[in-house]
Amino acid sequence: MNKKLLVKKALEAKENAYAPYSGFKVGAAVLTESGKIYTGCNIENASYTPTICAERTAISKAVSEGERKIVAIAVTGDSEWTYPCGVCRQVIREFGEDVTVIVVKSEDEYREYSLKELLPFSFGPENLK
Ligand SMILES: O=c1ccn([C@H]2C[C@H](O)[C@@H](CO)O2)c(=O)[nH]1
Ligand SMILES: [Zn+2]
């Protein structure tokens, strides 16, 4: 896995954030099983609740292009360490149980987690079978 590239892509994606209300920019980059990288940023809305996080923007782009399995996701935001929110953790879970989550501070400072650490005892598609 090209971790460094994923980190860089997340940092680049943050620059496109549309966050006029919170002023808090977030970027994400998803690596899928096919080896492709999809990026995303947070997109806020004047009506507030339609706001979508960077992680879900990136995942939506991947899934709408036919991808079904996430290998890793890198996320970076305007706080020193920006962790995926609970909703995003659940959406990541839908497309992989063994996903690597990389929380990015800068190009050479990042922390790596497994999704299982961030979302233990999770509920996923297998539970409905
Ligand atoms: O992991 C996170 C946390 C927050 N946000 C966005 C949502 C909102 O636009 C702004 C402030 O919560 O940051 C993300 O995109 N990802
Ligand atoms: Zn989120």
From TrEMBL:
Write down the required cofactor(s). Zn(2+)
A single MF term (Gene Ontology): cytidine deaminase activity
Q: Per the record's keyword annotation, is Cell inner membrane included, yes or no?
A: no
Per its UniProt record, what CDD domains does this chain match? cytidine_deaminase (cd01283)
Q: Name one Pfam family in it.
A: dCMP_cyt_deam_1
The enzyme class is hydrolase
Q: Which GO terms describe its cellular component?
A: cytosol
- Which reaction is catalysed here? cytidine + H2O + H(+) = uridine + NH4(+); 2'-deoxycytidine + H2O + H(+) = 2'-deoxyuridine + NH4(+)
Binding-site residues, substrate: 42-48
Q: Which UniProt keywords apply?
A: Hydrolase, Metal-binding, Zinc
Question: Ranges for the CMP/dCMP-type deaminase domain?
Answer: 1-126
Residues the record lists as binding Zn(2+): 53, 85, 88
* Source organism, top-level taxon: Bacteria
* Biological processes per GO annotation: nucleobase-containing small molecule metabolic process; pyrimidine-containing compound metabolic process
Matching entries from SUPFAM superfamilies are given as:
Cytidine deaminase-like
User: Which residues are catalytic?
Assistant: 55
Instruction: Briefly state the protein's biological role.
Output: This enzyme scavenges exogenous and endogenous cytidine and 2'-deoxycytidine for UMP synthesis.
Q: Which family does it belong to?
A: Belongs to the cytidine and deoxycytidylate deaminase family.
What is the name of this protein?
Cytidine deaminase
